[in-house]
């Protein structure tokens, strides 16, 4: 988890924010399928959070089938996790974000060319 800032906000529990950061790392390719997650102790120390918080985040990822526990070895990114996350993120974007973006595009009268070329009328 090195490189991830340890700034937490009050919008949701820290374990949930940590879970989301691990998911982002998988989607961005920083963590690949079959690779180990950093140890609970390592993350807790680096992020200055309670080890139980890290364990809760990891357990949620395991419950979702995104990581797997290997007895005596730790937690590893599960096979198929990246594809499953990409599907979920695309679905979420199309269902929740795209309608707002699309409405803004229509309201501003932007064309596909405007969007692709980043043009603005002067």
- Secondary-structure-based class equals mainly alpha
Query: What proportion of the residues is helical, as a percent range?
Result: 55-70%
Supply the CATH architecture of the largest domain. Answer: Orthogonal Bundle
Alpha carbon gap, first and last residue: 45 Å
- Tell me the number of structural domains: 2
Mass-distribution shape: elongated
- Within the largest sheet, what's the order of strands? 1-2
Q: Enumerate the spans where pLDDT stays under 50 for 5 or more consecutive residues.
A: none
Number of strands: 2
CATH superfamily of the largest domain: Winged helix-like DNA-binding domain superfamily/Winged helix DNA-binding domain
The gyration radius over C-alpha positions equals 19 Å
Biggest β-sheet strands, sense, barrel = 2 strands, antiparallel
CATH topology grouping of the largest domain? Arc Repressor Mutant, subunit A
Give the CATH level 1 class of the largest domain: Mainly Alpha
